[in-house]
Design brief:
Radius of gyration: 19 Å
CATH class of the largest domain: Alpha Beta
CATH topology of the largest domain: Beta-Lactamase
Shape: globular
Order of helices and strands: HHEEEHEEEHEEEE
CATH architecture of the largest domain: 2-Layer Sandwich
Largest sheet: 6 strands, antiparallel
Number of domains: 2
Helix content: 25-40%
CATH superfamily of the largest domain: PAS domain
């Protein structure tokens, strides 16, 4: 009976953890939904310059105290912004000792023309953070992956589709730096009382209290407390796993 009580308690704590982390991500998706409506309703399309409107939209989130987001903006499908092909209206928040930009105190706009290694971005259909919202019409979390374009660190990219005139016009999105996510997620995960992993659908580790399972490694695909195995974080494609092994 004592063992069953322990398993039940562990499962309850794991579910509470999953719910709290789901709420954290859903808060970011609520922000994306608001941005989506603003971009779709913008009058800047006809003028061919949507950047000022997008910057005004994302700047408060990027410069907030202890921001969760490290980057945010709107990525337009080719030809959607008049006079331009593929267009990134994307900003990085203030950075500390970034390998590319150094230390910055204000948001910096992503300049693709200055990045010789950004050619892979020309084919949006090859990029999960664009392809999934385009094909499904719903929001998506991509990662964790190392962002070689801007942060040179592990991030998650959250995106939601934007439609104009009934057609896919691009995505609004936000990048979460995993190191910042750890500040919010680790206290919730430690409260479970056993080694706990936050992973994506494929079992790739995002945050872990187990030092043998650092970010980017693969955990057992369905490990978790009780017969249900892994516990989904509501509203996301992430899951909590407890007692995993490498």
């Amino acid at each position: 009976m004592a063992d069953n009580d322990t398993a039940d308690t562990l499962q309850a704590r794991a579910r509470d953890c999953a719910a709290a982390i789901g709420a954290l991500f859903n808060g970011v998706f609520d922000t994306l939904q608001r941005w989506r409506g603003q971009v779709e309703a913008s009058t800047a399309w006809g003028a061919g310059d949507i950047d000022p409107a997008v910057y005004a939209m994302v700047e408060p989130e990027l410069t907030a105290a202890n921001p969760l987001l490290i980057g945010a903006g709107f990525i337009a499908a080719p030809g959607v912004v008049r006079g331009k092909g593929l267009h990134f209206a994307w900003w990085l928040g203030p950075l500390e000792e970034n390998p590319i930009l150094g230390t910055t105190t204000e948001p910096s706009q992503l300049d693709l023309a200055s990045r010789d290694y950004a050619d892979y971005l020309r084919d949006l259909s090859a990029l999960e953070w664009y392809r999934v919202p385009e094909t499904t019409g719903v929001r998506h979390i991509t990662g964790p992956y190392v962002d070689h374009l801007c942060t040179c660190d592990y991030i998650l990219t959250l995106t939601a589709p934007v439609s104009v005139g009934g057609s896919m016009a691009g995505v609004v999105g936000a990048d979460l730096l995993v190191r910042r996510l750890e500040r919010a997620a680790l206290p919730l995960m430690r409260a479970v009382g056993a080694p706990t992993v936050l992973a994506n659908a494929a079992g790739r580790v995002v945050v872990s209290t187990d030092p043998s399972l650092p970010v980017g490694t693969l955990a057992a695909p369905n490990a978790g407390p009780g017969p249900g195995g892994a516990i989904a974080c509501p509203g996301t494609n992430l899951k909590i796993m407890v007692g995993t092994a490498p």
